[in-house]
Amino acid sequence: MSDAATAAETAHGDDLAGKDLTPPGTESEVSERPPVFAVRDLWKVFGPKAERVPGDPELASLSAAELRERTGCTAAVRDVSFDVRKGEVFVVMGLSGSGKSTLVRCLTRLIEPTAGAVAIDGEDVLSMDRARLRELRRHRAAMVFQHFGLLPHRSVLDNVAYGLEIQGMGRTQRREKAAEVIGKVGLDGMEDRRPGQLSGGQQQRVGLARALAVDPQVLLFDEPFSALDPLIRRDMQEEVIRLHHEEHRTMVFITHDLTEALRLGDRIALMRDGRVVQLGTPEEIVGRPADAYVRDFVRDVPREQVITVGAAMRRPLAGDADSGPALAPTATVSEAIEAVARSGDAAARVVDGGRLLGVVDRERLLNVVAGTTETGGSAETGGAGPAGSGASGARPGAPGSLGAQGSPGSPGARAEAGKAALR
User: What CATH number does domain 1-32+302-384+405-423 carry, 2.60.40.1180, 3.90.920.20, 3.90.1280.20, 1.10.1040.10?
Assistant: First the structure.
């Protein structure tokens, strides 16, 4: 792991920042789940004699520009390690050129890694022969692409059934299976239409249904909604969330959109220049950015809509159990502000299973809104362990509009609004 791995363990803003505030039971549940994908020390280098770069500490430490000048090579993925655990939505996020699409394509060797290890259910992907790779791509890991790749001369039903046809399933059986999946993605009644008769969102639903039809162990999404209109894009995000909650299917989702990452991800790997600069839950990344780059990335996120009261709470004192609205530890600070404002109490109680875990008073709520304290538990930078929880399936509320600094969406403006609500 790179030296940046220690960045997430820097000094905390207050006495709560270093605490493990994951809701009871959830992190242990995730930790005990075997990884679907296990990635260790992964490199993908393009250029002449690419294999020399990972094995040479001097070359491996060069910046992108220096590496190109010295060797003519480009390191698209640099020394990346992580686990994707069963049943989670694992988001790989970064700007264009960060290496996110290359990384995910390495998982199934659509792009051949230069060095490192990739395993699915403990089986070494890099040692698979062609037959095993075909089986992996046809049955175990299905891709959903930004460009739908639908067959224009085929109906919706036959497009969805195409993967089953490739697998050798009989016509009647595959059409029955395809019809079942079409209903899952909300396309009932459109089975006989051609792709050209569908909207962009409907075409993407066909692509999603085609991937689901083969009943894959993992769904790999490569920025599937980036070309869609905002409202359609949000509908498709809701569709992914719904399918995940209903089927508990493991998903790896690539995006350059922070709002999308925070809405969908149980955990997020944030990439820059081929490296994972931080790996954690949305709450960890927003509440405890690993470095200045991540801090700037999340600067305008409405923290109160991501940070939970379980991370913001203080230890209970004598008398705290007697009054104040009761909230689950997964409730957001935004929900706590509303509850305290409605009740008129000085604080809200954080309760789990009838047990008082802590208290969030007005000062702590405002500190979260203003961004004057760090919260969010532990996080990793490029690490392989299970940072955070994906087990509960309960995500904090999706962030609203990401306002510019000094705008109504900025931390200062939201803090003033929070004060007004709590008066």
Answer: 3.90.1280.20
Q: Which residue is associated with the tokens 């702590």? A: 364
Strand order through the sheet with 74-85: 74-85, 35-46, 115-120, 123-124
Q: Apex CA 258: angle with CA 313 and CA 242, to 5°?
A: 80
pLDDT at 26 over 50: no
Q: Please report which confidence band the pLDDT of residue 333 belongs to, taking 50, 70 and 90 as the band edges.
A: very high
Would you mind telling me the total number of residues written for the chain in this entry? 423
Topology (CATH) of 35-280: Rossmann fold (3.40.50)
Full-prediction pTM beyond 0.85?
no
Q: How confident is the model at residue 376 (pLDDT cuts 50, 70, 90)?
A: low
CA gap 268, 271 in Å, rounded = 9
Give the C-alpha separation, 252 to 51, whole Å: 27
Average pLDDT, the chain: 82
| Closest by CA position to 260, among listed 223, 289, 207 | 223
Domain ranges in the chain are 1-32+302-384+405-423, 35-280
C-alpha span between 280 and 88 (Å, rounded): 12
Residue 420 burial (CB < 10 Å; 0-12/13-18/19+)?
exposed
Q: Are 294 and 268 in contact (CB under 8 A)?
A: no
CA distances from 39 to 83, 241, 264, 280 (A): 6, 25, 21, 16
SS3 410: coil
